Amino acid sequence: QTKTGIALLYDEVSENAYDIRLKLTKEVLTIQKQDVVCVSGSDHSANHRTVTLRRQPVGGLGLSIKGGAEHKVPVVISKMFKDQAAEQTGMLFIGDAIIQVNGINVESATHEEVVHLLRNAGEEVTITVQYLREAPSFLKLPLGSPGPSSDHSSGASSPLFDSGLHLNGNSTSTAPSSPSSPIANEPKYEKRWLDTLSVPLSMARISRYKTGTDKLRSNAFEVLALDGVSTGILQFYTAQESADWLRAMSTNISDLTLQNIKMANKCCSPSDQVIHMGWVNERTEGTDSSQLYKFKFLALKGSSFYIFSTPPVSTLDWVRAEKIYNLCEVLFKIHKLWLADDYWLQANLYLGIHQDFDLEDQRPYCFSVMVGHGKSHYFNVELGSELAVWEKSFQRAIFLEVQRTGSKTYICSWQGDTLCFTVDFALGFTCFDSKTKNVLWRFKFSQLKGSSDDGKTRVKLLFQNLDTKQIETKELEFQDLTAVLHCIHSFIAAKVASVDPVFIDSQSIARKYMYSN
């Protein structure tokens, strides 16, 4: 149930990454950072610890250091040697930043200055330390507990190499000094992973892209909670680790979304149920023709397709959508899938509605929803599995709406006459005079053999006469031709699905991708 692992938290400002531990439960992602805590004894503050080390004839201070002001990081303890002075105190830890040496503040000191101070500080060295919770990953500090080290000589001092202070300093005494050891009533300390941020996963969203761009982060992503709180950039050591965590978090978010849908549907009538909802990225055109992406929350509910900037939490929120479209009058289309060997597949729906999309963007898992008046929305999701769910959900929502509605009638005209054109799930197509209600012609869905349009208002529908087997052409003009064509597509697809559901499943582009992968 709970997944844990080590990752890096990347700071875009400093361009440093810090070691963190992730803890994932069904409902929450927790970020933990290491810190030193007082586990017994009366300690006012575990933040600053002052420790006196007695230099030993063999092993010196028993520690190594890294870092320095020249690299914009404090000097930190990078190694501690088993059973030697530093470790015996029980109060020092790998990752402790050295604040003072014998009362001298070294927070702004270079690496060499601190090495010099420690090596020439005499038999007893008093140091004040504070655990560096955000140690840059380039220091390569081990996360585990201190253990024996085979490193006996550090060579040249460098912030990226350990300067060994386990060698003897300028000691004149030959008598062995008593080892540094904790006094009985002194506080005891431990290094522990502590919770620093908890991100609720209900309605949370994930982004693998640099904000608003097509630039994919390498083995990294960000999780944003419903209230906008961000984990920051979570970076992983391998592509496999990144994929595993992405999948695990997405699964948990999806499971919580399903719970939210069930809760919402308890308050909705059977004809107004939520079929699916979730976060996507919508492509928008910038002022300089650049492509920008913004988070949008989509929902398929009852007879409508909703686009929100933030998820609907209460019943009232549903009327606050940015856009609402009738499901019979939209057309879902998968645009691009990056397959295993990096080629992409464009899906063409069999009605053959022409489109002029620029497919130059670098994002995989794209789909568009074409709406009335020739307009469209272009979306992207993070995972192929999400794309498959959206494809299936749109299909189901549209089919349910067609069956519920039964028929749609549109006002149209031809040669100056005002007519009505009806698409009916049971009867097919009917055209009648709007005033007299006289039926001018009627055809079944199976009689429609083709169509062509001028991309504006006029459409030609080609029907086969059942008696003569001849093709009859019917021309009509509509105010919103796109909506009518989408409606025809929805009704025909729903009719096919009711007769042959296996065929509809076999047409699923995203699901084919899922199986091939």
In short:
It comes from Smithornis capensis. The protein is an alpha+beta fold. Helix content is 19%, strand content 37%.
Question: What can you tell me about this protein's structure?
Answer:
With 517 residues, the protein is of the alpha+beta class. Among the domains are: 45 residues, no CATH class; 93 residues, Roll (Pdz3 Domain); 109 residues, PH-domain like (Roll). Helix content is 19%, strand content 37%. It contains 7 helices and 28 strands. A 7-stranded antiparallel beta sheet has the order 11-3-2-1-14-13-12, with helices on one face. A 7-stranded antiparallel beta sheet has the order 18-17-16-15-21-20-19. Helix 4 crosses helix 5. The protein is elongated.
What name is given to the CATH topology of the domain at 406-514?
PH-domain like
Shape assignment: elongated
Question: Structural class given helices, strands, pairing?
Answer: alpha+beta
Beta strand count: 28
Q: Could you give the order of strands across the largest sheet?
A: 11-3-2-1-14-13-12
Binned strand content = 35-45%
Describe the oligomeric state of these chains in a short phrase.
Answer: single chain
Overall CATH architecture of the domain at 406-514: Roll
Provide the CATH superfamily of the domain at 406-514: Pleckstrin-homology domain (PH domain)/Phosphotyrosine-binding domain (PTB)
Specify the number of helices. 7
Distance between the termini: 26 Å
Which CATH class of the domain at 406-514 applies here? Mainly Beta
Mean pLDDT across all amino acids: 84
Radius of gyration: 34 Å
Which percent bin holds the helix content? 10-25%
Show unreliable segments: 145-159, 167-179, 338-360, 513-517
User: What is the makeup of the main sheet?
Assistant: 7 strands, antiparallel
Region (Disordered): 143-186
Domain PDZ: 50-133
Pfam family, one: PDZ
InterPro entries: PDZ, PDZ_sf, PH-like_dom_sf, Syntrophin, Syntrophin_4th
